[in-house]
Structures are given as structure tokens and as C-alpha cells.
Amino acid sequence: MSEISRRNFLKGAAVAGAAVAGSAALAGCSSGGSAASGDWMPKSWDYETDVVVVGYGGAGMWSSLVAADEGGSEVVILEKAPVEGGGNSRINNGEWTVIKDEKLFRDYCVAFGHGLIEEDMIDAYIGEATKHTDYADKYGMTYEVAEKALAGTIPEYWFLDDGKYAGCIGVSNVEGFGMTTFHELEAKRAELGLPIELKFACTEEHLIQNPDTKEIAGVRFLEDGAEKTIKARKGVVLCTGGFEFNEELKNTYLSIYPFKFEGWQYNTGDGIRMVEEVGAKLWHMNMVISTTAMWTRDPDYDFAIFASPQSDAFFTVNRLGKRYQNEAKTGGTAHNGWHTLMSFSDKIDDYDRIPSWQIFDQKGIDGGPMGTQQGGWFECGNYTTDLPDELRAWDGWSDDNQVEIERGWVLKGDTLEELGQKIKDFDHWMDIDTLKETFAEYQAFCDAGKDARFDRELTAEENKLSESGPYYAISIYPGSCSTLGGPKKNVNAEVLDPAGNVIPRLYAAGSFGNFQAHSYGITGGNNSENMVWGRIAGRHCAGLEPWDKK
Ligand SMILES: Cc1cc2nc3c(=O)[nH]c(=O)nc-3n(C[C@H](O)[C@H](O)[C@H](O)COP(=O)(O)OP(=O)(O)OC[C@H]3O[C@@H](n4cnc5c(N)ncnc54)[C@H](O)[C@@H]3O)c2cc1C
């Protein structure tokens, strides 16, 4: 499939039909319920089942598995992607948290969350997370428990309180990353013959709520563009992931903007609207797991990419052309690197480090591919070969960086003046004279062997840029993995209204309302969040009496 047609395909979304992994839903059922009826209740249901799960990522996987396997319930999963699904959970690094010292971990959550994480939620989380390895073994997952994450020492803020939290968790190390895990769980579901049905190309969902009891009775949605209803006899578990590809939600709720992500393009925060319609309270809406990344600035490829110049001869400037940090030690923890871009300047009434620009020379190009590639050791994200054509957003970075230069993802100027003008064409705040002064100062620091501003170790051989060009630049934004805000829930993963009342038969799990607050502190925490709250939601919902039997 060509790039153009693939992208149109992705944007159109409503294609392909349902795939059946088990046999659960009954098509063409009449309502037949004895519960309250009225205008809110569909006259007939197109489908019915016990538990409806919306979103087929990791949280949807875990809640459906447990609802069916432990709860003996029929499950239907509604997934927005046209085929296969999997969400960010399918294309991530596969790391999940292994709690090693419960007491220390509990204290750590209180410490890094600055008291913002509710303690009953911490206890519920620990109670379930300590079963992770048992479940992983039960469902045939490949993993090893490591003392360090791919990105370094764990947990994220281990150094708080004199480093006493080091060692309170381990993290799973999974060969083949989240792709391995996702496919293993799919295979186990098939092997167990669980009554879980998957429906793809499902969009525009609205929860069907009894206005008197506030109970959720089912879901109205489009399937391949056709209006459908599904009765959820026991309840609905929302697992729609983050809002990484919804500019309005990001600009409204995240602490800084623009924020750019690299993952699953169907994650547009649809669940937020769904729960707002039924009166839920939102929480932790500013939470993200994210470092910094290159944004393509290309509307046809509107996502972030891990990319960097392939030499040590580079420096980073803010929007105005000034350096602001030791580029070799950018600070922040591995999964909170975006904090380094939190700098608001009243002089421009905006964030003056978004975008930042990495400036480099031919050495950064000649050193090898600047970005993540298919076949590379870090192959994960929206370009992986594991994804079918319909879901793959691009094919990974080119070997010689030329495709990305031609597309304008990497800016090139024969002179610094020309490069500065190209940056300015994108962001009018760039001051080309300031950029030239910064360049001259940086070059002098290299000659002197000392960075007098930011204490970066510099040498002329390693770090100095050519005096004659050409020069290159990439734009750096806050961004990479996932947003984590969503509806507030309780220890049963039941969604709450603003007064703290349960909205009966409605659950949330995964990155759609992470329990962590203040900052992302639990390394491997999102996959763990999926496992914890997915299982809790699936188990609790499956344990309910069907509303139509009351
Ligand atoms: C490259 C990368 C690496 C990462 N590595 C790790 C890691 O190692 N460890 C870790 O803990 N976290 C990691 N993360 C973050 C982690 O992957 C996510 O936070 C987590 O997978 C979210 O799981 P989820 O089930 O909530 O959402 P997702 O897995 O994203 O699934 C959400 C699903 O909902 C579907 N959906 C959305 N809207 C609708 C709708 N209206 N109707 C039906 N379906 C809908 C989506 O299509 C998607 O399939 C990484 C993220 C990325 C991008």
C-alpha cells in the first residue's frame, strides 16, 4: 500500500469488519429486559453480552481475559482500529512493574505523588500488582525480572529521601517488547477458548444510561459506519487509552503545549467525551509518561519520533536562538524528560523552549540513521513491522537520513543564516542574529575546552561544528509515550461522579485515568496499570448480577 493511500486509510478508519475470537454476542436480540424502560432504552438491541469492553489495548486485554476466565462472563470488545488493534500496549517496550518491597513501594508512592495519590488506591494497586508474575506465568508471558529499565535506574524518583526507594521495584524485561506480550495473550485466549468477541472499526460510542438509577445499560456506536446498540448485561469497561492524538484535549489539559506523541493514532480521547456525557469526574488530566522527541512538523506524518544527530557536535537552542542547558545532561527522569521544556516566557507570552532546535552539521548526518528504524534493537512504536499496513503510520527512518531531509523533517541550510531562516519560517520567534551569536560562543567554548555557561565537557575534536556548513536542525517537543488522564475511579475501578458516587456498571482501566498523580513515578507503570485495573475491573464487573435479571 502506498504512503498516501495508507494514510487516507488510517484517517478514514471506518473500514473492515468484525473478527471473532470466541463466540459470545448474540446478534439481533430484542430488549426483553424487565428493568426500567423509557426513551433512553433502545427498542431493540443489535447485540447483547455480559461485559462490554471499549478499547482493545492492554487494559482491554486484561479486563476481558479476567471477566471471561475468572468471572465466567461473555465479553464483547469494541475496538476503533479497522483490524487487529492492540493500542500502545502492542507497540510499547513491554516493561511492567514488579513490586519487590511492598512497604517501601507504598512509601515511595506517597513520596513521589506528594500526597496526591489516594492511599486506598495505592493499597488496592499493591494488592493486585503483587500478583503480576503469577498472572504472567498463568497466561504464558515471556519475561525476566530486571533491576534496571531500558531507560535506566528505577523507580523514576528512586533518589528521593536519600535514595531509600532504590530497589523497591523491579521491571519486566521482555524480548520483542509489548508485541511479544500482546501476541502471547491473544494466543492464550484462543487456546483457552474464552467467550470473548472482538469487533473492529467501532467508533462514536455513547453510553446508554438509565436516567433514574444512573446505571450503564449498554453502548450505542457505529460499526463500519452503521448505527448499532449493544446491551451490557453486567457493565461496561472503558479502556480507550490516552488522548495523544487529540490536539484540543492536549491543549486544554496538559501542563505545556504543543505536546506530540509517537504511538497509536486511534487514541483520540473518545472515552473522555463518553464519561462526561454520563456525569463522571475527571482526574489526573495533566499526567503523561513522556520525554522529549523530534516532531516531524509534517501534517501527513503528525507524530513524534526518537531522533538525534549522530555525532557529539551539536547544541540545542530555544525558540529565540539561545542555549539553555548542558546538552549532555538534560535532566529530568527517563520518563519525565518533558519537564526540561517547562519554561514560560512572558516576553513572548508563551513557552520559549517549545520547540527547541538541535543544531548540528554534516557529521550528525554522516554518522548513521538519526531515528528509530525497522529491524533496529529499539523497534517499537507506530512503524514496526509487527503492524499490518493498515495500522503502520510510516516505515521507520531511512539509512542515510535523506528521506527525512527531503520531507523537511530535518531542516538543512548551506549557511547558518539560511538554516536560521528556515527555522524562522516555521516559528517567527527565532532570532537569527542570536542564533549566530550562540553558534560563535559555542564554537569558542569547544576551542577553549570548557563550556562556561552550562558546564558541558567540550572539545574541538568531538563537539565543534564545521565553520563552513551545511548545517541542520530538528525540532524538539515534549512528547513520546502516553497521556494518562481520564475518569476518576475507586478501588474497584468503578467510575465516580463529582460527588464521589459510583456510576453503576461503569469501569475504567489503563491509561484512561491512571491512578498515579503529580508525576509519572512507577517505571513500567502503564503496563502495570493495565494489568492491575484491567483485572480489578474485569473481575468486579463480571461479579455483578445482570441488570435485566433484577
Ligand atoms: C513506544 C512506546 C513505548 C512504551 N513503553 C512502555 C513500557 O515499556 N512500559 C509501560 O508501562 N508503558 C509504556 N508505554 C506507555 C504504554 O504503552 C501505554 O500507556 C499503555 O499501553 C496504555 O494502555 P491502554 O490499554 O490504556 O491503551 P492502549 O494500549 O493505547 O489501547 C487503547 C485502545 O483503545 C482504542 N480506542 C480508542 N478510542 C476508541 C473508541 N472510541 N472506540 C473503541 N476503541 C477505541 C484504541 O484504538 C486502542 O486500541 C510506551 C508507549 C509507547 C508509545
TrEMBL record:
Q: Which cofactor does it need?
A: FAD
Q: Provide the transmembrane region boundaries.
A: none
| Record InterPro entries | FAD-dep_OxRdtase_2_FAD-bd, FAD-oxidoreductase_2, FAD/NAD-bd_sf, Succ_DH/fumarate_Rdtase_cat_sf, TAT_signal, TAT_signal_bac_arc
In this protein, which residues make up the domain named FAD-dependent oxidoreductase 2 FAD-binding? 50-526
Instruction: Enumerate the PANTHER family for this protein.
Output: 3-OXOSTEROID 1-DEHYDROGENASE, FUMARATE REDUCTASE
Q: What is this protein called?
A: FAD-binding dehydrogenase
What GO molecular-function term can you cite, just one? steroid dehydrogenase activity, acting on the CH-CH group of donors
Query: Which key words are in the record?
Result: FAD, Flavoprotein, Oxidoreductase, Signal
- Organism of origin is Gordonibacter pamelaeae
Q: So which domain of life are we looking at?
A: Bacteria
Query: Where is the signal peptide, in residue numbers?
Result: 1-27
GO terms in the biological process aspect are: steroid metabolic process
